[in-house]
Amino acid sequence: MRILVTGGCGFIGSAVVRHMLRHTGHDVVNVDKMTYAASLDALEEGQDHARHRLVRADVADFEAMRRVFDEAAPDAVMHLAAESHVDRSIDGPGDFIRTNVVGSFILLEAARAYWAGLDGDARGRFRFHHISTDEVFGALGPSDPPFTAATPYDPRSPYSASKAASDHLARAWMHTYGLPVIVSNTTNNYGPWQFPEKLIPLILLNALHGQSLPVYGAGLNQRDWLYVEDHAEALLAVLEAGEPGQTYAIGAGQPRRNIDVVLAICALLDDMLPDPNGPRSRLITYVADRPGHDFRYEIDPAHAQSALGWRAAHDFDSGLRRTVVWYLDNRRWWETIRAGQYAGQRLGAAA
Fold first, then answer.
1. Most buried residue among 64, 167, 216, 295 by CB atoms closer than 10 A?
2. What is the predicted pLDDT for the residue at 86?
3. Catalytic site residues?
4. In this structure, are residues 198 and 226 in contact, taking their beta carbons and an 8 Å threshold?
């Protein structure tokens, strides 16, 4: 297939691009605006791969998206382009509305116009895969069952509200216009090439430098963690085996409290690269909680596992160890970011 991937230079998007180039024969047309969190380096061999083409364009630009569809003639779309950092959405929600809501609307309209002009077989094969987050479902209490694809929406932050809006648009375009849309929602991803404003790389890199490890509240907020390469594999399974009109909740069933994630990172670093000043847990600093901080996210992946024949290959301990080793081995990439080359970065407590 020829697959149009939006946001393919972002954290999850680049993992999808790498996975398809390494494990399939699909051609990839990668549309990315190249904002602060995008990275050409994250494409790895994709930068010069014969089956990959990068188009620098904004999903909120209708004429640009129309040209992309006309020139690329894709068999499917994987829509990952999004502003995704909750703290940034609290500071400045406008970018999130523009990219996540308006951008999704424009991409859906461009896809609908393109799909309407396809012949019978190509029209029947076309898919629009909209990738979203479990944060649209709101917050779970300590004893609530995990989210499923049927959980009612209850977004609590500007970020999650913007993603919820885009999910509703995608489904509406199927019900109203017949566009063959599939939606997937996932939980917190981690792994190589994640921009260091997110919890795991932020804590890891601060700990390496002997800096404060900021933890919101008492660190008791809980997240379900999914290794990004496992998610990329799941997303391709959704595209290839998912049914239009269905929603797939993708997770690993590996919840951890934020404080336990921080302590696990400290323990791994202490083992791999001991600090003569003592255990890195001494650097933990509890900071004022952010507004509307959801207490717990967790996904029940049973339906996706059964329907797609997919299961996360990495448990949290093995995935975290691989992640720590990757950041230790790729200092040049993140040192450039921490030196402030990327405009508008906001490095603080996360998750």
1. 167
2. 87
3. 134-135, 159
4. no
CATH of residue 158's domain is 3.40.50.720
* pTM exceeds cut of 0.90: yes
| 274 in any annotated domain | no
**Residue 68 in contact with residue 4, Cβ under 8 Å?**
yes
In a domain, 244, yes or no: yes
- In the chain, how many domains are there? 1
What confidence tier does 342 reach under pLDDT thresholds 50, 70, 90? Answer: very low
In a domain, 288, yes or no: no
Distance of CA 286 to the CA centre of its chain: 26
Q: Which domain holds residue 137?
A: 2-190+226-254+297-314
- Asked whether residue 261 is domain-assigned, the answer is no
Half-sphere exposure of 257 (CA within 13 A, CB side): 11
